[in-house]
Amino acid sequence: MNLQHVRAIARKEWWHLFRDARSLALLILMPSMLLFLFGYAIRLDIVEAPIGILQESHDAQSRELAAAFDASRAFDVVRYYPSRQSLGDAIVQGDIWAGLVIPHDFIRDIKRGKASLQFIVDGVDANTARLLLNYSQALISDHLLQQGLRPPIRIEDRLWFNEAKQSRIAIVPGVIAIVMAVIGALMTSLTIAREIEQGNLVMLRTTPLTRGEFLVGKMTPYFFIGLADLAVAASAAVLIFDVPLRGSVFGLSLVSALFLLVVMLQGAVVSISAGNQLLASQIAMVSTFLPAFLLSGFVFAIENMPKVLQYVTYIVPARYYVSLSKVIFLKGISPFVVWTEVIALLVILLLLIGITFARARKLGLLS
Question: Which of 146, 180, 211 is the last residue of a domain?
Answer without folding.
Answer: 146
